[in-house]
TrEMBL record:
It comes from the Eukaryota. It comes from Cinchona calisaya. Its main location: membrane. This is TMPIT-like protein. The chain crosses the membrane at residues 144-162, 174-192, 204-223, 235-252, 320-345. Keywords: Membrane, Transmembrane, Transmembrane helix.
Length: 371
């Protein structure tokens, strides 16, 4: 009798526990459905609000550009016109550099991003996330600039001290593989920065495409040793010396030009997502220091390219990799030189325009005083 009562109690307890668990499961399922409905409603409402803000941002940006053109083509007083332009520049800066800039049209993702990442949107909607992307890019450049300098320097030192003036193939190919990683990483990061509003010149990205191709091709280039090792590795040695100079130039750019860029951003003359590459920023004293180094680098780069073509033509190393790398080096040297000159011309025009505007304002003020 007691056993029967115990069995009945156990059965009742088991049934009660099962019912409790079932009710909890049902409750959690209902909560999940409710949360899903609320989330879908929020996303739909947010999407509608984003579309509305996007239309307003595009319309406002278009109105600012249109009004700027009207002011420049009008017959307004120069001082008044200058003040109106300054106000519109401030409005455009607020629009593009604030959170509203996320609703403006972005630049194309580019083939490289689509090839490596697929159809993924890499544009950040929040400005702080975009700035973190830029800071990561600057950190990557700082870190790799030292390696760009130390890696070829170490190879040249070991060549003289340990390898008896003849570079083995493996260390050189490891360096070329690192160059492929470096230029691929820079190209990917710069494409992402362009999508997020950075004003990087297309040439610097194309330059990295050429450098990626050269590094990839050079990995298949057989490093000849004896006999006549010094003659056969002359092009490799010159390239390593050029890389040391390039590393020094990168360190100078990171050190001086970025400080100037931060100043320009604070003055509203540059956007927060802008970055320094090549010679895109710098005060007059820095240009006097950097430009000779850049021109020497470009000339040396072209010289190494011509030397590689010469070694292929005279039959010292008659491989297609030598010819291709020589042509790529010459293309990059010419492109870098053209962009450096273009930047200097642009800077001189801007300075001349500022001086002319300043002189005109002083004349206007003087005429007002005489009246």
């Amino acid at each position: 009798m007691g056993d029967t009562t115990t069995v009945a109690d156990n059965s009742s307890t088991s049934t009660s526990t099962s019912t409790s668990i079932s009710s909890q499961v049902s409750r959690l399922v209902e909560q999940a459905k409710e949360l899903q409905d609320l989330s879908a409603s929020l996303i739909s409402r947010t999407s509608c609000e984003e579309d509305s803000l996007r239309q307003r941002a595009n319309s406002l940006h278009s109105d600012i550009q249109s009004l700027l053109s009207s002011i420049r083509n009008s017959n307004l007083d120069s001082n008044h016109s200058h003040k109106l332009e300054e106000e519109l520049f401030k409005a455009r800066y607020i629009l593009t550099e604030g959170d509203a800039g996320a609703f403006l049209p972005s630049k194309s993702h580019g083939r490289l991003l689509r090839m490596f990442l697929g159809p993924i949107n890499v544009r950040a909607n929040r400005k702080d996330v975009q700035l973190k992307v830029k800071e990561e890019y600057n950190t990557f450049r700082d870190r790799t600039a030292y390696l760009f300098l130390l890696f070829p320097l170490l190879l040249i030192v070991l060549r003289s001290w340990i390898w008896n003036g003849c570079l083995p193939a493996l260390p050189v190919q490891l360096y070329q593989a690192w160059l492929l990683y470096l230029y691929t990483g820079l190209a990917l990061r710069e494409n992402i920065l362009r999508v997020n509003g950075s004003d990087i010149r297309p040439w610097w990205i194309y330059h990295h495409y050429f450098a990626m191709a050269m590094a990839l091709i050079s990995l298949t280039w057989e490093i000849e040793r004896e006999p006549d090792c010094a003659q056969k590795q002359k092009g490799v040695l010159l390239f390593l010396k050029w890389a040391i100079m390039q590393g020094i130039a990168m360190l100078l750019q990171n050190r001086y030009q970025r400080q100037r860029l931060y100043t320009r951003i604070a003055l509203g003359k540059a956007r927060r997502m802008d970055v320094v590459w090549g010679e895109t920023a710098g005060v007059e004293g820095q240009l006097w220091l950097l430009c000779p180094i850049l021109f020497i680098l470009q000339g040396f780069e072209a010289y190494v390219g011509l030397l590689l073509l010469q070694t292929a033509l005279v039959g010292v190393i008659s491989e297609w990799q030598v010819v291709t790398c020589g042509i790529l080096l010459i293309i990059m040297a010419v492109g870098n030189f053209a962009n450096t000159v273009q930047t200097l011309v642009t800077k001189s025009r801007v300075k001349a325009k500022m001086k002319k505007s300043k002189s005109k304002q002083e004349l206007d003020q003087g005429s007002v005083k005489h009246q």
